[in-house]
Design a protein that fits this description.
Its cofactor is [4Fe-4S] cluster. Its EC number is 7.1.1.-. This protein has 183 residues and is α+β, with helices and mostly antiparallel strands. 25% of the residues lie in helices and 13% in strands. It has two domains: 33 residues; 117 residues, Alpha-Beta Plaits (2-Layer Sandwich). The model has no long low-confidence stretch (mean pLDDT 92). The structure holds iron/sulfur cluster (2 copies). The site of one iron/sulfur cluster has 12 residues, from helix 3. One iron/sulfur cluster (SF4) binds next to helix 4.
């Protein structure tokens, strides 16, 4: 049964002499190349010399995640697992642990993520984890995932995901007014 009208019937029509010479196609291709060459001369190069130059990103850009801490430096994540359940790519894994008394300055809640990992090769940067989190603990940022040379290095743990007090990541552009009031 035909589901769409997108398919085309292919005909084996004989090529004309011009088509056999490929000249029209070659001239057409050269015309496009010349058009771009003239455009570059007139308007300057359109090439961004990345990474020295970085193209401005849209406000809705979703890049590498950050696990947030509160103003006292305690991790907000309580290892509830909602982000992992919401993740359509099954990119998030974690191991929960109970907070020890002496660790109250490290973790905000009695349960915390001892291990928290995101496989950046699986992630599709959809932002569902961010939406699912009841603790405002995870946000996507405008940072890029690093270039790595082996697959295992793309599994980012807490060492790469958790922000520090000295290097807080601004996520105010992605927070609701209520979330902005949280400390
Ligand atoms: S951004 Fe989407 S795919 Fe990536 S970890 Fe979050 S929920 Fe999963
Ligand atoms: S990041 Fe948020 S949703 Fe995910 S485990 Fe931590 S508290 Fe739960």
């Amino acid at each position: 049964m035909k589901l769409t009208n997108r398919s085309k019937v292919v005909s084996n029509k004989k090529m004309t002499v011009g088509e056999k010479l490929y000249l029209p196609a070659i001239l057409k291709g050269m015309g496009i190349t010349m058009k771009h060459a003239v455009n570059t001369v007139v308007n300057g190069s359109q090439t961004i010399k990345y990474p020295e130059e970085v193209k401005p990103r849209a406000k809705v850009w979703r890049g590498m995640h950050v696990l947030k801490i509160d103003d006292e430096g305690r991790e907000r994540c309580t290892a509830c697992g909602l982000c992992a359940v919401a993740c359509p790519a099954e990119a998030i894994t974690m191991t929960a642990a109970e907070r020890k008394k002496e660790d109250q300055n490290l973790y905000r809640e009695e349960k915390y993520a001892e291990i928290y990992e995101i496989d950046m090769l699986r992630c599709i940067f959809c932002g569902m984890c961010e939406e699912a989190c009841p603790k405002s603990a995870i946000y996507l940022t405008d940072r890029l995932v690093d270039v790595e040379t082996n697959r295992g290095s793309f599994v980012y743990g807490k060492d790469k995901l958790v922000e520090t007090l000295e290097n807080r990541i601004d996520v105010s552009g992605r927070q609701s007014e209520e979330q902005k009031k949280l400390v």
